[in-house]
Amino acid sequence: MSTNDQPTDARARLRQHFLGDKSLHIKKWDDLYIEDFLPWDKGFVNPAFVDLLHDRKELFPNTEGKRGKALVPGCGKGYDVLLLDEHGYDAYGLESSKNALIAAKEIEKQAKATGQYIGRGDVNWVDGDFFDDGWLIEVQGEKKFDLIYDYTFLSALPPSLRPAWSKRFKDLLAPGGRIVCVEFPTYKPHSTGGPPWALPPKVYMAHLSRPGQELPYAEESGLQESELGDASPDGLQCIAHFQPKRTHNGGYDEQGKITDWVSVWAHPSE
């Protein structure tokens, strides 16, 4: 397809871009950074995450005076990583796109030069595939995290990777740690495809409470809740689930109502 033949709608263009061999998806994401076609990039942290860290401190673990470790998989240009650094975390921004990391490092440099942020932890930019272990060599100390943040990362993954995504999140979460998901897009029908893939709250609830399990999906209607069965005994526990007071503009419907949700997860009985 020539440039002139590409769909004008951003989501249609994304869907077209990712048709075909799923093994090429990492390269295809990097290609979008080269083209500077980044419709998901708003240029700043989602306000829902800002508010959560500022207003709901009781949801997060007490690291007993030590700096916690935070992970943002699929960090893009790294706005969330810098925010977590400001909150005192040693923050790791993981990306499979080398060009995204080049942009993230430049944004960090400019932000420091202009005094826009002063970090209290350490920032670490890591090139790697979330589902492989090779990048963990870059992680200092124990290879687990006190906070893992997902916003638009899961929506970028084909639904077939959701069992692996949930298991990986569970395995990388430190005892006492928290997973934060800003759930988006919640309003799309499953049949519309992606990215971004439809992610109603039931998808997060089903997969994170059953990490690693293959769950039943129908081509048109998506997740089949009536066929799920019980959650896993070692599944993650949702300790908070609510709609934020504000979010990025893509999380509002035509009437101005927020469609995003925020969920916070922990290991069982924590």
Automatic annotation (TrEMBL):
SUPFAM superfamilies: S-adenosyl-L-methionine-dependent methyltransferases. It comes from the Eukaryota. PROSITE patterns: SAM_MT_TPMT (PS51585). The keyword Transport does not apply. Keywords: Methyltransferase, Phosphoprotein, S-adenosyl-L-methionine, Transferase. Gene3D superfamilies: Vaccinia Virus protein VP39. GO terms for biological process: methylation. GO terms for molecular function: S-adenosylmethionine-dependent methyltransferase activity. It holds the Pfam family TPMT. This is Thiol methyltransferas-like protein.
